Amino acid sequence: MIELNAIHRAYRSDEVETTALADIDLSVQAGEFVAIMGPSGCGKSTLLNILGTIDRPTSGTYLFEGEDIAKAPEAQLAKLRRDRLGFVFQSFNLIDELTIAENVALALAYRSMPAREKRERVDAAMDRVGIAHRRNHHPHQLSGGQQQRAAIARAIVGEPKLILADEPTGNLDTENGAQVMDILTRLNADGATIVMVTHSPAHADIARRTVHMLDGRILSAVRRAA
Amino acid sequence: MPRLAWIALYRSLTRDKLYAALTIGGLAVGIATFLVLALYVRFETSYERWIPRSDRIYRVDTAVQFPGSPFNGAYPATMAGLFEMMREDFPGLIGTRIRGGDRAIGERGGAVLRGGVATTEDVAQVDPSFFDVFALPMVQGAGAGALADPTAALLSRSAARRYFGSADPIGQTITVSMDAPANYHVVGVFEDLPKNSELHLAILIPIPKTPPPSEWTWYKWGTASVATFLRFETPEAARAFAAKLPPFIDRRAKVDFGPGASRWLSQPLVPIADTHLKPMGSESASRQLMVATLGTIGLLTLLIGIVNYVNLATARAGLRAREVALRKVVGASRAALIGQFLGEAIAAVAIAALLGLMLAEVGLPLVNAAGGTSLAMPYGWALPLLAGVTLVVGLAGGFYPALVLSRFPAATVLASARAPGGGNAGARLREALVVLQFGLAIAFLIGTVVMAVQMRHLRAADLGFRREGLITIASLADPKIGQDQARTMLRALQALPGVQSVGTANIAPGGEGTSNIDIVEQPGPPGTGPMLRLVSVGPGFFDTYRPRLLAGRLFDNAHAADDSSDWKRWNLGRNVILNRQALATLGFRTPEEAIGKTVGNPRPRTIIGVIDELRFFSARTADTGSYYMYTPNAVYLHIGAVRFTGDPRAMLDKVEESWRRIIPQVPFRGDTADHRLADLYREDERATRLVGIGTGLAVLIGCVGLWGLAAFSTARRVKEIGIRKALGASASDVVRLLVGQFLRPVLLANLLAWPLAWFAARTWLAGFGDRIALSPLYFLGASLIATAIAVVTVLGQSLRASRAAPAWALRHE
Predict the structure, then answer these.
(1) Contact map slice: B 783-812 vs A, CB within 8 A
(2) Residues with Cβ < 8 Å from B226, sequence gap 6 or more?
(3) pLDDT at A126
(4) How many whole angstroms from its chain centre is CA B700?
């Protein structure tokens, strides 16, 4: 499904050039659950952002379902994100001014489909993560675990092929973290491809493959039997 | 303010220079606009207040109220003999007449003759008691009592320099011509009159004790040829005198008006300070309206600047929440914080006020050029005003941000990663303020469009004659010119190469000449009947103006009854020509129906022709029905008109050259008809330009504010934009979102602007007899322009925000 070849990402500030990713090769098959681990600043999130097309590599190729999108125009990437990707962030990234239901519906806002169908899909997604009873609340009225479940509902409402999760349990306590991992496992079992950045070895173990990173490079990939 | 507070202010201004430029710059432009327009209002309302004891001086007007007369209204003059009669009946009355030298009445000044050649001068004949009323400051000699000598003259400082250079003017002789040339000796010099005066006095000479031969209206009630001023020590005395006037008029005006003359004629007393802005004759109160409009625009532009300041200040207030929280933690009281932010606001407004003053000084020459004014900034007036504005705006503008900022709860602010932004209420207030700002700006814009279109309409209006290729010579009507001299002049004009025809009439385009009304008596009680303007025309008039003939024929020397030159034969029945409106006034349905009919009882007038309107007067005065009489042997009291081909400038020079050769004793006064007509609307054109400038600046400040708000709001929404983009929003989705957010208040602003502008435009247009219809297109057009400007203003930032990489945006706090 995903094929990264010689991906390089450098940030330039005034004088310093920092290499965030160097020579990354990675492939992810459809239906996989991949965990990315590594210390802070090793490039995990940058890699995830590039996978999610919300950041661009400085050089290298990125094949998404066989198509090179490393240099694709922004409009095409927006369409790709809209139709095939779902994001879950560590800090949830819910919009305070909108209710939970509206936040979830935001992922469908840029698609043309009948309003009724949108409503049904939003309800279904919220049901699936057990947040439907909080639909009319604002994010700051919810606990962290509830917020993250809402964020997952938003990520899956568009029925994406690939879910990208950036430390989805990082801001949660153990119990809430476990609940979120349960949801992700279920989604993977239902056929979604998941790439997750995590600091938690326990949560990484749930994934079928773990990629270890250090200083912008991939050290090793551990594959477990399903 | 303590030192640290100054540092905080300095840093908050320099940290974000763009923000400082927007808030302070916007307010400075608002203050500059307000200053300049306040200066204009101050100038317009300061007329005659410079005269010592001006609050005791009253002008006597002549107000006519005939049922159905188009000439109804108050005129700023009286019959020449009125003051004599008043003094006979009310001994001890203090007052003076000014004959000539007052351009409000018409260009009735005289001339100074040197070497047989006359030059126009602001000569005024006044009563010896002039200085009892107008205590003009003297440079040399004494004013009071000087004019009891019938050959004495007083000169203004600049007139003295003009005629005698550096020599001592006292005792010199000067030849002045009013009714006829005469020699006067200079007995004194008075200071030049300031610009804020309707009086134009360069030479004062005594008014004749008996009427000059040409002045048959000297004691004719209902005429208005001299300005009469009275002095009363108290307003009560003035009121008491005014109460005695109706019986006086009934007693004295019986000769011309019959019994009960005060029903139709009154002589109201107007305080001299009110005279400049008072409407004249049948004109509407357009000057007052204009001064009020420009004053309002100044105030509202200042308001827009203040709104801008408040808006950006509250929007930015949240960014200083952490500073506020920390100050609270170290023990600042709420009052101390409010004091700090109010102090900051006042300091910022003071900077804006200084900048505004500079802008106003820089802009004044431009405004003077556009508005035809000669405004200057008096600092004794401007600085206290600015200090007041600074305090008021500083307190008003700083109060809300100070309140919001000082209310932030310290703990929450310090604990949270995000800065509070005044919440939804703050956002709603800002949106309401943007609605107010743009509402006013759009209303101004609509007003400017309507004024510009109306002015264009007036310039292009069909006047019934071609205004190009036409020169009028007003000085031909001077009574000092004899019949033979006038005829010689007309023949010389006819002989000039390029001249097609030469005609004369007692009126000319631009409103010059004499206005006569005539009652066309109907069978029934005497004195009733429709009123028409009586126009007396000489040979060549119709050839020169070429009106459309609707029925019948024009005047012709072959018909003896066409000639009305000898008024003693009028009772025998004369032929007249009507215009279209007179047709309706007299009750004829078609032009053909009127031909051959005779109207008027003691003086039968037979209608031989009907022409379409020739519009010589301002569209501000209602058009009147007119009839034309042919007076080929009275051309010397007529204004000349020359129809020509070729360059107008060259033709005017040639006409003036002939004039100097044939009639050197009277100064030449002539101009192209299109100049004279443009003069009618000069004040309106100026006002339109001033309103246009005010509007431009108001829109500019509005845009600056919108730009600042968009910058602020976009910066705050960076993260949201990142989320939306991660969820698949395209760049155009984001632009649409951001532009839409700002479009809503701008569209709402139209709801505020339209009724406001409609009401104002309708009031202004009501002052014109010939006016454009208030089309919805002006409203839609102005709104479209404002909306387009607003979109362009926020588009740049929206585009930039939409292009930012979402990964960066998501990290943004």
Answers:
(1) 803, 805-808, 810
(2) B77, B78, B79, B80, B97, B98, B99, B105, B207
(3) 92
(4) 25
Amino acid B432: pLDDT: 85
| Runs of H (alpha helix) within chain A | 44-51, 74-84, 100-105, 115-128, 144-156, 174-189, 201-206
Give the residue-averaged pLDDT of B337-344. 82
**What residues does each domain of chain A span?**
2-223
CA B223 to chain CA centroid, nearest Å: 26
Please answer yes or no on whether A109 and B727 come within 8 Å at the CB atom.
Answer: yes
Does A161 lie at the interface with B, CB-CB under 8 angstroms?
Answer: no
Average pLDDT over residues A111-118: 87
| Pairing mode, strands B123-126 and B203-206 | parallel
Interface check A139 vs B, CB under 8 A: no
Domain coordinates in residue numbering, chain B: 1-45+286-421, 54-276, 434-460+682-813, 470-645
With beta carbons less than 8 A apart as the criterion, state whether B479 and B181 touch: no
Nearest Cα of chain B lies from the Cα of A225 at a distance, in angstroms, of: 32
Look at residues B263, B215, B255 and name the one whose alpha carbon lies nearest to residue B64.
Answer: B263
| Nearest by CB: B733 against A89, A107, A110 | A110
Least CB–CB distance from A78: residue in B723, B729, B805? B729
Total CB pairs under 8 A between chain A and B? 69
Q: What share of chain B is helix, strand, coil (3-state, %, to 5)?
A: 55, 15, 30
Cα A31 to Cα A28, A192, A195, B586: the distances in Å are 9, 6, 10, 99
Q: What is the ipTM of this complex?
A: 0.76
Task: Assess contact for B436 and B702: CB atoms under 8 A.
Answer: no
- Contacts of residue B626, Cβ cutoff 8 Å, sequence gap at least 6: B532, B533, B534, B535, B578, B579, B581, B582
Amino acid present at B359: L
Condensed to tens digits (0 to 9), the pLDDT of residues B787-807 reads 888 888 888 888 887 877 777
Tokens of residue B501, six digits: 């025809």
Distance of CA B626 to the CA centre of its chain: 28
The residue that leads in pLDDT, B157 or B263, is B157
Contact B345, B397 (CB under 8 A): yes
Contact A151, A94 (CB under 8 A): yes
What mean pLDDT do residues B509-531 have? 70
Give B813 to chain A, closest Cα distance, Å.
Answer: 11
Backbone angle region of B280, left / alpha / beta, with phi > 0 → left and psi within -120 to 50 → alpha: beta
**Which residue is it, tokens 């933690």?**
B329
CATH class of A2-223: alpha beta
Contact B806 A55 (CB under 8 A): yes
Nearest residue, CB atoms, B729 vs list A80, A83, A110: A110
Question: With bands split at pLDDT 50, 70 and 90, how would you rate the model's confidence at B636?
Answer: low
CA distance B729 to chain A (A): 6
For chain A, say whether B195 makes contact (Cβ under 8 Å). Answer: no
CB contact under 8 A, A93 and B725: no
Q: Which residues pair with A35 in a beta bridge?
A: A196, A210
Q: Does A135 touch chain B (CB under 8 A)?
A: no
Using the Cβ of A33 and the Cβ atoms of chain B, whether some distance falls under 8 Å is answered with: no
> Measured between CB atoms, which of A95, A110, A111 is closest to B720?
A95
pLDDT of the residue at B289:
80
Q: With an 8 Å Cβ cutoff, are A78 and B731 in contact?
A: yes
| Interface contact flag, B727 A87, Cβ < 8 Å | yes
What pTM did the predictor assign? Answer: 0.75
Write out the E strands in B391-498: 470-473
Q: What is the DSSP letter of B194?
A: P
- With beta carbons under 8 A apart, name residues in chain A contacting B719: 93
3-class DSSP assignment, residue B200:
coil
Answer yes or no: do B725 and A54 touch at CB < 8 A. yes
pLDDT digits (tens, 9 = 90+) for B542-559: 999 999 999 999 998 888
d(CA B679, CA B200): 18
